[in-house]
Write a structure and sequence with these properties.
The protein is of the alpha/beta class. It has two domains: 200 residues, Glucose-regulated metallo-peptidase M90, N-terminal domain (Cyclin A, domain 1, Orthogonal Bundle); 87 residues, Collagenase (Catalytic Domain) (3-Layer(aba) Sandwich). The strands form two sheets. A four-stranded mixed sheet has the order 1-2-6-5. The chain has a two-stranded antiparallel ribbon with strand order 3-4. The radius of gyration is 19 Å and the shape is globular. The structure holds zinc ion. Zinc ion (ZN) binds next to helix 7 and helix 9.
């Protein structure tokens, strides 16, 4: 799910607006202060990573994050480092009385870290805040239909991602995704995939920043063909490996394909080899090794 800033404002959206304002206040600094800020940030990260990894956090990883034990020792260490930065640098906030404990932070941050395990120094810097509800939450929604007719309603959500805004989760769904592998569903991978998609612009379009023109062209070709295949299969009630929610648009297709890539990698490589290959190139990972 991607947050839409044009939809109606409810209490949740007021909170999101506050997080936006906070981001733009900090992003309006001069070039000199940005350099100092970056230097201080790198120094702070080095100090953080020089500390030993807390034992209790290892317990959370083993209990709540199914893929952790299947990573190599080197990958586990890298994942620990990325998740420590995410835990330390994000503003964590509980909603509807939910208390964000260390277990909650580590469980969410570890799953987000898996996405960027093969990348260089990616800590989702544009995500300033992570909001957590105890369970599925209801958000007010206004949609503009034909003739400018606005429809108001409520939608139940497991999570959502906002451009340069917060990422929002239901803890029940975070745990379900983290503890159950092979079902192809993981709300943390899904919402942080949207954040990667939005690294090159406000509108998520299923195309995150690419390393080369060639990679971009290959991505376009494979993604459109695989998206059309899913639309066809879902319309005709044919069984598909990918969740039909991916037919919503190309942005949702990228997020759904990412969940499947990490959770059902073997099946994806068999039945969607071209899709598996471009995702493996993008993420610099071969998750079959984790199963
Ligand atoms: Zn989505």
């Amino acid at each position: 799910m991607i947050g839409n800033p044009e939809s109606g404002m409810d209490q949740l959206q007021w909170r999101i607006r506050l997080h936006y304002n906070w981001f733009f206040f900090y992003s309006s600094r001069s070039a000199g202060s940005i350099m100092i800020f970056k230097w201080l940030k790198n120094r702070r990260r080095r100090k953080l990573l020089a500390q030993p990894f807390p034992d209790s956090w290892l317990t959370y990883l083993k209990q709540n994050v199914h893929f952790y034990r299947r990573l190599s020792e080197t990958q586990q260490r890298k994942l620990q480092n990325i998740l420590r930065v995410i835990v330390a640098e994000k503003n964590w906030e509980g909603c509807k009385g939910f208390v964000v404990t260390e277990e909650v932070k580590v469980t969410i941050a570890a799953q987000a870290a898996l996405l960027v395990l093969g990348m260089q120094e990616e800590y989702f810097d544009r995500v300033q805040s992570i909001l957590v509800y105890p369970t599925v939450y209801i958000a007010a929604e206004k949609t503009m239909g034909p003739g400018g007719v606005v429809t108001e309603g409520n939608s139940a959500r497991e999570g959502e991602a906002w451009y340069r805004g917060p990422v929002i989760f239901s803890w029940d769904d975070v745990l379900r995704g983290g503890r159950h592998d092979h079902d192809g569903r993981n709300v943390v991978l899904h919402e942080f995939a949207h954040q990667l998609d939005m690294l090159n612009g406000r509108f998520a379009d299923g195309i995150p920043p690419m390393a080369s023109e060639q990679q971009y062209e290959q991505w376009q070709k494979v993604f459109h063909s695989e998206y059309n295949r899913l639309v066809h299969d879902c319309r005709n009630h044919k069984r598909s490996l990918l969740d039909c929610y991916g037919t919503t648009n190309l942005a949702e297709f990228f997020a759904v394909a990412t969940e499947c890539f990490f959770e059902r990698s073997r099946q994806m490589k068999q039945s969607h080899p071209a899709l598996y290959e471009i995702l493996a190139n993008y993420y610099h990972q071969n998750p079959i090794e984790y199963h």
